[in-house]
Amino acid sequence: MRQLLLWVTALLVGGATLLAANEADAIHLELSITAAGNTLSFQKNYADNNIEINVFDASNNLIQSGDLVPAGTSLNLMATVKGGKYQLKSFHVTWIEDGTPQSEELPITAADDFYGSYLKHWTMKPYDTTISLDFEESDPNTPRDLILTIEPSENGHIELFDYDGITPIASGSPVKDGSVITVKATPDEGYKVSLLRIGDDFYSKDALHPDAETGVVTKFKTVNASMVISALFEEYKPNNVDITVITPDLETGMLIISSNGANLRPVNGILSIEKGQQITITAIPMDQYDVTYVKVGSTEYTEGHGLTINEEGIATMQLEVTESTTISALFDKKQQVEKVPITIAPCEHGALEVLQGEQLLSSGDQVDKGSSITVKAIPDEDGYETASVTIGDKVYEGDALMPNAFGIVLLENIIVSEPTTISALFRKSAVDTYKVTYSFPSEVADHITVKANGEPYLSGTDIAAGTDIVFVYTQGDSKWLVDSWIVDGNAVAETKDKALFILTVEKDTEVGVAIYNGTQSITRDSISIRLMDHGSSLMISGLEDGTPISICDTTGRTLVVSKSHSIDISTIPQGVYIVRAGDIAMKVVK
Domain Bacterial repeat spans what residues (predicted)? Predict the structure, then answer.
């Protein structure tokens, strides 16, 4: 194995350094390979970047500085001349073998053209080796030959012609520098040209201008370098429109278009979508960025105005495709919001709760400057009340404190603009408080609500004297009715069938309810059945309104079902029938 030092020098005839291949009278550029220094180095670009060299091994691995290149390694030497008045003539290889200079010239031919570059193969020898690139000055009267390569395409084909559009040019054939060629991209039936590449030029969408009848795209190109011509053909769908997707800078965010749960991939920035199709537009910001808007055509969609942004900052919107348009998104850097700390001072005979939205804060937590908080002062249940709440340098007391039925004070929309300390003072309440306990039979317990001052009241909770506690029984489909409300074991007069009961708190009290089954009991003796109007109607009495009544024949077949006490039986022939009400069945002869 031999370690190689690869370096590139540019020489003038007189020995001066060549700075630009198109500005000096140089005809010789040298790529030296030597074992000096036991280090492999390689200068990839030189001559003012007009010439680029890449070296690969047989496995197409790029040889970089520091690599070890053993003898016998097959090297692919690729040189690209990007412009200038010189053209590559040959690769010239020299080495010293047993003290005797040896050399081999690798002349450049049209066959060495490799997609606009020149490619030669060389097997590394176990000697110090120099590979020189020999150039010759272009004769303006003798244009150099350039190679045009057609890259095979699916669902269509490419043809090259002279400027007249008649004389064909085969792929791989040389043409003269400065020639004007005609490029024709012809799609197969049912397809269209979506992209055409001619060398470094790309044509898409509006730049293609296909023939209205044939779909053929024709372009003219002046050849000033070897080039590759290729095309992309896609299925032609007459009801489709083109959506141009402008990709944002990946440092700011991503723009994703999807339909029916599948992401759609733009081809060269274009999506072909059927009219009427629903798509989802998703804008995903990167860290430190927010979605400002999603733009469809000339319309900007912002949060709350066609755009939904979730807690993670991801924006989505739905769109029905009706015409060709452009979709883009703007991401702006987040403003750095100043944070300020919240300090919650310890309290005696009560507690403080501080919330931002639904988040409960702890002492020492930081909030955004200018944001709002809610402060709750909660006195102990053994007869204490809130005397004052201090937030920063502002004291809330007296009428500024509006306790609810449970003595809790709520201060909302407090704006925090600086480090803030929150404290509260609790004192023994001047108003007596009592406990009201309640329990109800299991049959109706889920149907009774208990509230004080519009808020649910929990059994056994301290409550101020004079407060009204409201008990409401909602029967729904239950068969149970209120027989009476019970206070401290005694039935309250005139509360039978009363769904509403109000207790004014005056002392510790126990509340309950007595219930009864409200379903009517139907007996044979309570029902009276008579034929009326010469047997054309049946009159039934002794039942509550709405009680279902059915008339059946002797086989059990139901003929009539009614909730009316007077039933028309004129259409029923004479005979014996059974009348049913509840669990009672009685015979009737018409």
Answer: 150-221
Whether residue 291 contacts residue 309, with contact meaning beta carbons closer than 8 Å, is answered with yes
Partners of 555 in the beta sheet? none
Please report the pLDDT score of residue 3 as a whole number: 35
CA nearest 29: which of 87, 76, 75, 95?
87
Structure tokens at 352: 């403080």
Sheet containing 339-344: give its strands across: 366-368, 339-344, 420-428, 384-391, 394-397
Annotate 468-536 with three-state secondary structure: EEEEEECCCCCCEEEEEEEECCEECCCCCCCCEEEEECCCCEEEEEEEEECCCCCCHHHCEEEEECCCC
Query: What phi and psi, each to the nearest 5 degrees, are found at residue 207?
Result: -85, -5
- pLDDT tens digits, one per residue of 523-554: 566 678 888 887 788 888 877 777 888 888 88
pTM, two decimal places? 0.36
pLDDT at residue 517, as a whole number:
76
Which positions ≥6 away from 540 have C-beta within 8 Å?
Answer: 527, 528, 529, 549, 565, 566, 567, 579, 581
**Cβ neighbours for 287, distance < 8 A, ≥ 6 positions apart:** none
- Summarize pLDDT for 467-488 with one digit per residue, the tens: 999 999 998 878 889 999 999 9
Rounded Cα distance between 585 and 499, Å, is: 35
How far apart are alpha carbons 443 and 41 in whole angstroms? 92
Domains and CATH numbers, the chain: 5-137 (no CATH), 145-235 (no CATH), 240-333 (no CATH), 339-425 (no CATH), 433-517 (no CATH), 524-589 (2.60.40)
Q: How far apart are CA 84 and CA 504, in angstroms?
A: 103
